[in-house]
From TrEMBL, chain A:
CDD domains found in the cross-reference section: lipoyl_domain
Entry GO MF terms: acyltransferase activity
Family annotation (NCBIfam families): PRK14875.1
Coiled coil: none
Name this protein carries in UniProt: Pyruvate dehydrogenase E2 component (Dihydrolipoamide acetyltransferase)
One record GO biological process: pyruvate decarboxylation to acetyl-CoA
Chain spans, region Disordered: 83-134
Keywords: Lipoyl, Pyruvate, Transferase
From TrEMBL, chain B:
Chemical reaction(s) catalysed: N(6)-[(R)-lipoyl]-L-lysyl-[protein] + pyruvate + H(+) = N(6)-[(R)-S(8)-acetyldihydrolipoyl]-L-lysyl-[protein] + CO2
Protein name: Pyruvate dehydrogenase E1 component alpha subunit
Organism: Albidovulum denitrificans
Pfam families attached to this UniProt entry: E1_dh
Function: The pyruvate dehydrogenase complex catalyzes the overall conversion of pyruvate to acetyl-CoA and CO(2). It contains multiple copies of three enzymatic components: pyruvate dehydrogenase (E1), dihydrolipoamide acetyltransferase (E2) and lipoamide dehydrogenase (E3).
Cofactors that this protein relies on: thiamine diphosphate
Gene3D superfamilies: 3.40.50.970
Organism taxonomic ancestry: Bacteria, Pseudomonadati, Pseudomonadota, Alphaproteobacteria, Rhodobacterales
Protein keywords: Oxidoreductase, Pyruvate, Thiamine pyrophosphate
InterPro entries: DH_E1, PDH_E1_Alpha_Subunit, THDP-binding
UniProtKB/TrEMBL annotation, chain C:
The UniProt record lists the keyword Phosphoprotein: no
Single GO MF descriptor: oxidoreductase activity
Keywords linked to the UniProt accession: Oxidoreductase, Pyruvate, Thiamine pyrophosphate
Cofactor: thiamine diphosphate
Domain Transketolase-like pyrimidine-binding: from-to ranges: 12-187
Name of the protein in its database record: Pyruvate dehydrogenase E1 component beta subunit
Length: 427, 338, 336
């Protein structure tokens, strides 16, 4: 008899969890104690280890919500015959709408077993393939469009009309989406446990340079977020999707142990990774991290995204720091040069809109912070105008706090030396 | 004067059939001729779309071959099948209606000239496929044998069909299983433009019978009595359970193969010569000679046939067309279990 | 008028164009023979071979007995061993009698023998309805043969193409099946003189348009073009693709057009279900061009019945210009 693998209850009031990633492929062998899959609940994401050994079969597709206690897969013994899934396997797409009274075949009916990047897309709205493609490329949510075609079908014209109304109407939502893996760059030299760095929103890997100067003894690995630096401009549907993407990149690095450093949005992502990959994290450093409270300076975010010239970018950049003088005109011009691609700016706008709608952090990782097991510290400037430093006070006692007077949202630049010394003592 | 029924100098048909049946036979031959002429005339008037294969000149073969058949007995026919239908007592109005593509036609306007059938009279139908009817006739004979109906099947086919595999396969199976079927070849010397000399390795199709261990005879297909004598004997043999036979009626089609024939493969003289040997004239003479009919009565029979055909054409012309919405009716049996 | 323009102006009927191709082939290659029923002195049931027998004699323009299975098989054997037969079925329907040799032998022998032989055979199939010849003389069976790997199946729609594709078929080392719609035989059109080939496997865009793609075959190409002329002034700009070959199908031309217009109608005379349109639709649905569809694909094909005799029924069971107009308007105006 195969052994069932269930959706574990990992949280007090958890009713169901979403399978985010399988670490073992269908048909592969897993040994008890190895990471088997990642789940995400309303509150958190985490890694689930295999409770038994065996060969994995009948795994529910990634993206599926499964009620707690229900099987998500079965482990078979070597040589055991694999037939139909034993009864009780969670339905593949429990949220799929029931098809009612519609004798005509539905082109948009849910396809059982289909795996998609965005499991929700396409199953709620009646839309033509071309409309979907246009919406996808334009960064428009097809579900939000009222179709004018037969039976309310969204057609290309409906999407085009929306896109034609221009960026003002669309807000930050329009950009040409790309695909592909995130950009990863590595320092030369250094030995021992590597340091993995995740930059903040509207920044990129090059922003770590001042801090890196103090970490030369370790290999440094930097990840560019989607729509940032050299990474492709992926469509990011939610924080969870973004986390999944970055976590996949982290997983692909295949590190036994890593020191993880994240700034701002990168801090939230680093926390999310540490939450599910705790055993691989030698230490966690969160610099002015997002995800610990609702407030954020939305105006600054959209201002940076919108700015198409150094003149309009400068004032917003100066808001990032306490001492405006360090943001020189040449620094601004350089920063603008890195943001000259309108599609990059559009992609970041779209991301801001998704992650920080109406100037509110839609990401809440406080539970993850509470669960955190690796050694961790939070570094914040007390004159941070973007995210209030007081969010740091939510941290449990295990987490060290380093709060700098007279420093803004960018301690790693504003006081790179001090932060570097601090990190070096533990990394 | 010797008794006609036993005198071997008296033709078989006169000896065998009552005056009434002989009169009826001549009447049918007139009906066939008038039917074909009426069809041709209708075509010329643009009342018929498509083509047609006329059997003018072959009436004795059609009528003679069906003389000893009842409604229980079956025939299978060919693309040149109007005569066979008439010989098997088809309703002329329904035939013309079919020709005109009307809902009142034998095939409700779906089949046309090449597919007229009347299962109620044992006519399993004409066929658009040369040789298509041969295996079907053997199947009908198999049914008759298995079901013990005593029915015989007469299978009409042209000389051209004898080179199809279906011909050979059919004769072989009929012989092996001793089935009650009579293969009647209407050898009109051509399959379309190709003469038997150019298409067929044997001189007479009847020679093929030897390969399948069945009797094979060749007769003058324009001589009503000769046809009846040969076919009746074959039918009787089949009814006795002795198996199949092959009868070859030598005849000639006066008209082209179809409406698009330019007659480039035969001479005017050849056609004229065969028109001299009109089977209807011969049959009329036979009946007049044997005092079964007077010249005047022959004339009246012809007149009557012409009238029947006129009425049939009128019926057809006045009949309703099929409904477009019903084009896909009868593809499958309605109400049949899926 | 110089010689060049005269060539350009020259018009032949579809049947004459076929005859000219066969004439060129017979004259230039001794290995070419014609086989078929009544193709000699009769000139062919549709007068396609015409008087070729007078020019080349009965040894090279051979009347076969009415023996489709055997005749087709003899052609296969001859093709295997050095001749290049062009075999005419009197009606495509009679190919049913020869399926064994076409499907089990001609199509497969090269493969079965590990590529050591080839079958340079050309078969011609007068096809389609519209002549009042009813169920057994009116079928469009190209999809049957299109389903057989080893065969190439073409449906030229113009005099120019039928000549070029027949000559291309003769140069092809594999069996090529040419379906000729009977209604096209009398159609006239420009035909270049001399030898030329029209590629097998390549569709032709007969009319460029941006709103809607119609992929049509054979006679339906002309119906689609007629419909497109009516639709133009209505503001519906139709692209008409003449598929020309159904095996191998020209994927790229069809997909490129669908990417451009986002709407697709397939028009073909064969029975709609499991036919050529099913393949075109599936090809689009399986490709990236799917993303460009802005409406369901529409297939207009033959009704689910044999071809009836009655002329009105006969018209009703295959796509006609008004059917194409309806479908195009419904699609363009967003009703389906
Ligand atoms: C299988 C098949 N091949 C070819 C044809 C075309 N065709 C129709 S009738 C005919 C000639 C038939 O000759 P024959 O059997 O002698 O009959 P006849 O026309 O002389 O009565 C031909 C070639 C056909 N209908 N079916
Ligand atoms: Mg004949």
């Amino acid at each position: 008899m195969p052994i069932e693998v269930i959706m574990p209850k990992v949280d007090m009031d958890m009713a169901k969890g979403k399978i985010v990633t399988w670490h073992v492929s269908e048909g592969d062998t897993v040994t008890k104690g190895e990471p088997l899959f990642d789940i995400e609940t309303d509150k958190a994401a985490m890694e689930v280890e295999a409770a038994d050994s065996g060969i994995l079969h009948h795994a529910v597709p990634e993206g599926t919500d499964v009620p707690i206690g229900k099987p998500v897969a079965w482990l078979y013994a070597e040589g055991e015959e694999v037939g139909d899934p034993p009864a009780g396997l969670a339905p593949a797409e429990p949220d799929a709408p029931a098809v009612k009274d519609d004798p005509a075949p539905r082109a948009d009916a849910p396809r059982p077993g289909a795996t998609r990047r965005e499991p929700d897309a396409g199953e709620k709205q009646r839309a033509t393939p071309r409309a979907r493609a246009l919406a996808r490329d334009g960064g428009v949510d097809i579900d939000a469009i009222a179709g004018t075609g037969p039976r309310g079908r969204v057609q290309a014209g409906d999407v085009a009309a929306l896109l034609d109304r221009g960026p003002a109407q669309l807000g930050a939502a329009t950009f040409r989406a790309e695909t592909g893996p995130l950009s990863v760059t590595r320092s030369k030299g250094g030995t021992g446990t590597p340091v993995v760095m995740i930059h903040g929103f509207a920044s990129d890997a090059t922003s770590w340079a001042p801090l890196e100067a103090h970490l030369k003894h370790r290999p440094v690995i930097r990840i560019d977020l989607p729509g940032h630096g050299k990474s492709p401009k992926l469509k990011v549907a939610s924080f969870a999707a973004l986390l999944q993407e970055v976590r996949r990149t982290f997983d692909d690095l295949n590190l036994d142990q890593a020191h993880l450093i994240g700034h701002s949005l990168g801090g939230a992502l680093a926390l999310g990774i540490a939450d599910t990959r705790a055993r691989g994290i030698a230490s966690l450093t969160l610099i002015a991290p997002a995800g610990l409270g609702p407030d954020i300076d939305g105006a600054a975010l959209s201002g940076i995204c919108r700015a198409s010239r150094a003149e309009s970018l400068g004032p917003w950049l100066r808001r990032l720091v306490a001492d405006e003088d360090i943001i020189t005109d040449s620094y601004v011009r350089l920063a603008m040069a890195g943001r000259s691609d309108p599609n990059l700016r559009a992609a970041q706008s779209a991301m801001a809109d998704t992650l920080f709608p109406d100037g509110v952090q839609a990401v809440d990782l406080r539970a993850a912070l509470d669960r955190l097991t690796p050694p961790a510290r939070i570094i914040w400037g007390k004159r941070d105008a973007i995210i209030p430093w007081r969010h740091a006070l939510r941290a449990p006692g295990r987490v060290a706090l380093h709060l700098f007077d007279g420093i803004g949202h960018m301690p790693q630049i504003e006081c790179a030396e001090e932060v570097g010394v601090l990190l070096r003592s533990q990394i | 004067m010797a008794d006609a029924a036993t005198d071997t100098n008296t033709p078989y048909a006169i000896r065998t059939y009552s005056p009434q049946r002989l009169k009826d036979a001549l009447h049918k031959m007139f009906l066939i001729r008038k039917f074909e002429e009426g069809a041709e005339d209708s075509y010329t008037r643009g009342l018929i779309h498509g083509t047609m294969h006329l059997s003018i000149g072959q009436e004795a073969s059609a009528v003679g071959s069906c003389m000893s058949l009842s409604d229980e007995d079956k025939i299978t026919s060919t693309h040149r099948g109007h005569g066979h239908c008439v010989a098997k007592d088809a309703d002329l109005g329904k035939m013309f209606a079919e020709f005109f593509g009307k809902e009142t036609g034998y095939c409700k306007g779906r089949g046309g000239s090449m597919h007229i059938a009347d299962p109620s009279r044992g006519n399993l139908g004409a066929n658009g496929i040369v040789g298509g009817g041969l295996p079907i006739a053997v199947g009908a004979a198999l049914s008759a044998k298995r079901l013990g109906t005593g029915a015989v099947t007469v299978c009409f086919f042209g000389d051209g069909a004898n080179n199809e595999g279906a011909f050979h396969e059919s004769l072989n199976m009929a012989a092996v299983w001793k089935l009650p079927v009579v293969f009647v070849c209407e050898n009109n010397r051509y399959g379309m433009s190709t003469s038997t000399a150019r298409s067929t390795a044997v001189k007479q199709i009847a020679e093929r019978a030897a390969a399948y261990s069945m009797p094979g005879v060749t007769v003058d297909g324009n001589d009503f009595s000769a046809v009846t004598e040969a076919v009746d004997a074959a039918v009787a043999r089949a009814r006795r359970g002795e198996g199949p036979s092959l009868v070859e009626n030598m005849t000639y089609r006066w008209r082209g193969h179809s409406k698009s024939d330019r007659n480039r493969y035969r001479t005017k003289e050849e056609i004229a010569e065969w028109m001299e040997r009109d089977p209807i004239v011969a049959m009329s003479k036979l009946l007049v000679d044997h005092k079964i009919l007077t010249e005047a009565e022959v004339g009246a029979l012809e007149e009557d046939a012409a009238r029947i055909i006129r009425e049939a054409i009128d019926f057809a012309a006045a009949s309703p067309d099929p409904k477009i919405e019903e084009a896909t009716r009868d593809v499958y049996t309605e109400g049949a279990a899926a | 008028m110089n010689a060049q323009t005269r060539t350009e102006m020259r018009e032949l009927s579809y049947a004459e164009a076929i005859r000219e191709a066969m004439d060129i082939a017979l004259a230039s290659d001794d290995r070419v023979i014609l086989m078929g029923e009544d193709i000699g002195v009769y000139g062919g049931a549709f007068q396609v071979t015409g008087d070729l027998v007078e020019k080349y004699g009965t040894d090279r323009v051979m009347d076969t007995p009415i023996s489709e299975l055997g005749g087709a098989g003899v052609a296969v054997g001859a093709a295997l061993t050095g001749l290049k037969p062009i075999f005419e079925f009197q009606f495509s329907d009679f190919a049913a009698l020869a399926m064994e040799q076409i499907v089990n032998q001609a199509a497969k022998v090269r493969y079965m023998l590990g590529g050591s032989v080839s079958v340079p055979l050309v078969m011609r199939f007068p096809a389609g309805s519209g002549t009042g010849a009813a169920a057994q003389h009116s079928q469009s069976i190209e999809a049957w043969l299109g389903h057989v790997p080893g065969l190439k199946v073409v449906q030229p729609s113009t005099p120019e193409d039928v000549k070029g594709m027949l000559l291309a078929a003769l140069e092809d080392p594999d069996p090529v099946m040419i379906f000729e719609h009977k209604i096209l035989y009398k159609m006239k059109g420009h035909v270049p003189e001399g030898h030329y080939t029209t590629p097998i496997g390549k569709a032709a865009i007969r009319r460029a348009g941006k709103d809607l793609t119609i992929v049509a075959t054979s006679l339906m190409v002309h119906k689609a073009l007629a419909a497109a002329e009516t639709l133009g002034p209505e503001g519906i700009d139709v692209e008409v693709i003449d598929l020309r070959t159904i095996r191998p199908m020209d994927r790229e031309t069809v997909l490129a057009s669908v990417r451009k217009t986002g709407r697709l109608i397939c028009v073909y005379e064969g029975v709609k279900t499991l036919g050529v349109g099913a393949e075109i639709s599936a090809m689009v649905a399986e490709s990236d061009a799917f993303d460009f569809l802005d409406a369901p694909i529409v297939r207009l094909g033959g009704a689910e019945c044999p071809i009836p005799y009655n002329p009105e029924l006969e018209k009703a069971v295959v796509p006609q210009v008004p059917d194409i107009l309806d479908a195009a308007r419904n699609l363009a105006e967003g009703r389906i």
